[in-house]
Amino acid sequence: MLDAKAHWENVYATKAATQVSWYQSHPHLSLEWIRATGIAFDEPIMDVGGGASTLVDDLLDAGYANITVLDISSKALEVARARLGERAPRVNWLEADVTHAQLPREHFAVWHDRAVFHFLTDALARKKYVDTVRDAVKIGGHVIVASFALDSPEMCSGLQVQRYDAESMHATFGHAFRLISSQRENHQTPWGSEQKFIYCYCRREKTRA
Question: Which of 6, 109, 142, 184 is deepest in the core (most CB within 10 A)?
Answer without folding.
Answer: 142
